[in-house]
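Ex. 9. Protein: GGDEF domain-containing protein.
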Amino acid sequence: MEMRDMNMRALRFLIVLAFGLFAALPAEAQPNGDMTLADSRIAYDASRYIELLEDRDGSLTIDRMADPDVATRFVRNDGRVPSYGYSNSVYWVRLSLRNESEQREWLLNVHQPPMDKIDLYVAREGGGWTHKRSGDAYPFAEREVRDSDYSFYLDLAQEERKTVYLRFETEGAMILPITIETPVVHAESGRTTDLLMGGFFGIMAVMIVYNTILAFSLRSRAYFAYVFINVTAALLYSSLNGIAYQYLWPESVWWNNRSIVFFMCLAHIAALFFTRQFLKLNRQFPTIDRLFQAFILVELINMAVLFASYNAGLRMAACTLVVIDLTIVLVGVASWHRGYLPARFFLTGWGVFMIGTVLTLLADAGIIPQWGHVRYASQIGSLFEAVVLSLGLASRIQSMRIEKERAEALMKETKRQAESDYLTGLYSRRYIVGTFESLQKRPENVPMSMLLLDVDHFKRINDTYGHDTGDTVLRDIANLLRSELRSIGIVGRFGGEEFVALLPGQGLAEAERTAERLLETVRNYPFRIRDARYPCTASAGVAEWRQRERESFESCMRRADGALYEAKRAGRDRVRIARDALDEAMG
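Predicted structure tokens for GGDEF domain-containing protein:
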């Protein structure tokens, strides 16, 4: 219970933290006009000053920007980060800069790592254009500034005015977050970004390593699936943020262009595997489990399509994204509704991740503005999900341990009931037979005897006083036998009024003395029937196990039963011993 309370407190804290990280307000629009660079500021959001032109067929060139029919088509941006979703158009940006500061060197930055092609044009004195290019369609080494975003140096003398043109072309989301910064500020913001990314990937690495150790130690498929989902998430976000292109495959342009969609499909496969294991879909929802297997096959096909056609793979991934993620959430809700407690962690973690993913997708599609942390909403959600699912796995292990303990307790109770007589609580015939067979394996020269005891005139008690009274007498005798033989024998009920005792370590003479003592105890016990004392006696037959012959239980019991019959025939309330083989042969 303490661990469960701690998990719930941690869960509530993470929920508050996640929504706090997602909270961001849109920036206020600034007056339109040229962007003026002053000494009082060292960083600017250019989105408030840019003008935009959509080139639907991509036919425009920089030489046509001065044509009146083209120049008048530029539209002033509304102050928000331009976002046009997944568009086939090429977009041009016009930005007028006036430098009134003493700072001559500035950096124009485009904070959109998945952008394919960016062309920057600055007019030269005397005519012509200074042209620079960047984007993930070119080798990383060609970048003017070696970081995951795209940066271009601008040389502006004091009081100089320049117009900058940017051409954007991409098969991904057309998002144009443009800023102007000094190199020092850019380096500092880069260190901050690196620190945050380092924190994200550091936490993910710790979660991966720790849970990999748990997966091997516990041999848990759910933990292996959890590690798989975190590894794919780390690879996906390293591709999205341009980190993988910078450090892992800087020369692999073709692969880098497909890596995001590839890891998106792989992350879905990991999520489907994890959901199947964590929510035990094969038990709870067999039909949904088969549907998830079909989803996995679809994602594998999508990965194959991606290598043949990037556009087809991207669109297929976009279609399956909503369907698969929504199905996973609905299955989590259904599992929680069925009372599977670990599902609350699953639903919380996956739900927050879905919120972050939806915000990121809506922003990429241009449906909502690119506000504050929206760019990292999916990544924040993924980190939150990793932590919560880790708590969920711990809760699941705890739940499985409780289930195991309950199953073991039930098994023990079932075994106890199978090995016990329901009326007296003594061992059953089945248990006595099994114990006899195990005692046969003991070393030689260790004697063992069997004692059969039968209550005298028991039918008379049932007929005269009723079966309830007879049951009371049987329970009293059972308690006497249990008390007398606790340290020297194993006693059970064979049915009716007949009891059996195994006496390991006792030969025939010692077993006979034990039987005499038992009959005396029964004879002297104050049985009560209807508030009056009722005299009750018993008869006993004793047989010693023939060790050298490896005598069976049935054979030994027949001899003890024969001795019991002799005791009954001789007048009851006495002990008789089974004759050995020599006596039987003589007559």
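Check your answer against this statement. The longest helix spans residues 377-419.
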